[in-house]
Write a structure and sequence with these properties.
Layout lengths: L1 H11 L4 E5 L6 H10 L8 E5 L11 H9 L14 H7 L3 H11 L10 H15 L1 E3 L1 E2 L2 E6 L7 E7 L9 E7 L1 E5 L19 E4 L4 E9 L5 E9 L16 E2 L2 E2 L4 E8 L23 E8 L12 E3 L3 E5 L8 E8 L5 H5 L1
Parallel strand pairs: 1-2, 3-16, 5-11, 9-12, 14-18
Antiparallel strand pairs: 4-15, 5-8, 6-7, 8-13, 9-10, 10-11, 14-15, 16-17, 17-18
Helix pairs in contact: 1-2, 5-6
């Protein structure tokens, strides 16, 4: 009945090229026989078979996908961890990136599996050229600049996209109290740690050089606040900015930051071919989704759903459809670098 319906629906709808996956190759003789037996006039459709697009670290089968949805292993067909069209769209993947990806891998009749890294590389390549840059701190630590005047705010110039000469610049506020990433500070850092440490210096991107003088902790020993001094003669782009510092980190002014939920999506499985490795559910990546409350520069208050943004040093992000003016929700589309490359080598 499927072959019967397939053939007639193609003919009635005026399909010229009925493109199927390889398992339908043995059905083509029946497809053609039905068209001949009914003596249907030209033009008639023709069936073509190609290998299905399979991606590593994912499962394509609709039978298995619906099992995940029904068992609530994912949040629906448009869960950004799925490689469904609706899932990729919600994650922030653009149609142009998908078309480029499909063009680059081409068409084959040989069953194969395409590395997910190729799709991610295609997305990064496009977004690097088109995405506006913004400053966002995912896991904030407060920094107080003890020698910066209280109540003072100045505006610094920041580049929107270094790859686009027409992207211009924007203004970002700078004040006495800032937020930096918790990963950008260590009390006892390893060698070649070029970020902030007690007694060490680092440059704030687009801003000044600061030095960590004091670390404040809670009763459990967690770092709560850093007291730093700022070199007021070291402003980026200024006439006295020549002092060289190895590390540069991003930041957000505490007084001007807007809060947002940021969802850090990653690959859904921990192995390249979960179908071939046994029970695919046993290879679900427990770290495929992490939600954090982030601090964002105020320019993101005007963010548009159709735009893509690079959170500097963090990755590429898109607004989730559930986002509202009162509460922004951001989905990570892809990291800045292939963080799975090291795992593959292991």
């Amino acid at each position: 009945m499927y072959d019967w319906a397939h053939t007639l629906s193609d003919y009635i709808e005026g399909i010229t090229h009925s493109i199927c996956t390889l398992e339908f190759e043995v059905h083509r003789s029946l497809y053609d026989w039905i068209l001949d037996a009914l003596d249907l006039p030209e033009p008639r459709p023709h069936q073509y078979e190609f290998a299905r697009l399979n991606l590593t670290y994912s499962v394509i089968s609709k039978r298995k996908l619906i099992q995940w949805v029904n068992e609530k292993l994912v949040h629906g067909w448009d869960d950004p961890r799925l490689v469904t069209i609706s899932g990729l769209r919600r994650r922030g993947v653009t149609p142009s990136a998908l078309r480029t990806f499909a063009y680059n891998i081409g068409i084959t009749k040989y069953p194969s599996v395409t590395d997910m890294a190729l799709l991610e590389h295609t997305i990064r390549d496009e977004f690097n050229r088109t995405a506006a840059r913004r400053l966002v701190v995912l896991r904030p630590i407060k920094v107080v600049l003890t020698n910066y005047p209280e109540g003072k705010t100045e505006e610094l110039d920041a580049i929107n996209n270094p790859e686009d000469a027409n992207a211009r610049t924007r203004k970002i506020p700078f004040s006495r109290e800032l937020y930096i990433e918790s990963d950008d500070f260590m009390e006892m850092p390893p060698p070649k740690f070029f970020r902030l440490r007690p007694g060490g210096e680092v440059r704030l991107k687009y801003g000044y050089i600061i030095k960590c003088d004091q670390v404040l902790k809670d009763d459990a020993g967690n770092v709560m606040e850093l007291r730093c001094t700022v070199d007021l003669e070291s402003k980026s782009g200024g006439p006295t900015a020549g002092r060289k510092i190895k590390g540069t980190i991003h930041w957000v002014s505490a007084a001007h930051a807007i809060e947002a939920e940021v969802r850090l999506y990653d690959r859904l499985f921990t192995v390249p071919e979960p179908d071939a490795a046994g029970d695919f559910k046993s290879f679900i990546n427990p770290n495929s989704l992490e939600a954090v409350n982030a601090k964002c520069e105020p320019a993101l208050s005007d963010a548009r759903p159709e735009e893509r943004y690079q959170f500097e040093r963090l990755g590429y992000f898109a607004l989730d459809p559930d986002s509202t003016p009162e509460k922004q929700i951001w989905n990570r589309t892809v990291t800045l670098r292939d963080t799975w490359a090291k795992e593959a080598k292991k």
